Amino acid sequence: MTDEKELLLRLRTENTKEQAFKELLSLYKERLYWHIRKIVISHDDADDVLQNTFIKVYKNIHNFKGDSKLFSWMYRIATNESITHLNKNAKHLQISNEELQQNSISNLKADVYFEGDDIQLKLQQAIATLPQKQQIVFNMKYFDDIKYKDMAEILDTSEGALKASYHIAVKKIEDYLTSN
């Protein structure tokens, strides 16, 4: 894997920026897609949000201060873009974010890109009942196995708060799965 500092330098240098960005895309596109997809549910929406994420990364790479890992910074952008996308859709449809989430889960079974079975669909339904922050924390920990330290950088919160959020989310999901 390319050294992050060297990649960052090439991203900020005009004559190497394009090639370095292609490398960045190939390194992170799939991971960011799945992170986004777990938040917005729909494949088409995830593609749109992923594209917006990389446009923001490309335009703002010179603003990246290096206080966190490049990966963490991009995950934060992807998370914020996903939330913005959901909020816009909910507002456009004049429904709550919770209703939007439930509609997305209902449409998941018909989604040609969803390859899960009934158990995975039930898990997605359980996750959809969680508040947005708990959903994001649960997905990042359970599916992506992101360390609390990295998650704290991405979500700009404490590790303790994330551990508590994850624990509460797991309990709610267990309760949902045993009662449905």
Automatic annotation (TrEMBL):
UniProt keyword annotations, A-Z: Sigma factor, Transcription, Transcription regulation
Lineage top rank: taxon: Bacteria
Residues covered by the RNA polymerase sigma factor 70 region 4 type domain: 121-173
Listed InterPro entries: RNA_pol_sigma-70-like, RNA_pol_sigma-70_dom, RNA_pol_sigma70_r2, RNA_pol_sigma70_r4_t2, RNA_pol_sigma_r2, RNA_pol_sigma_r3/r4-like, WH-like_DNA-bd_sf
Domain RNA polymerase sigma-70 region: 26-90
Family: Belongs to the sigma-70 factor family. ECF subfamily.
Protein name, as recorded: Sigma-70 family RNA polymerase sigma factor
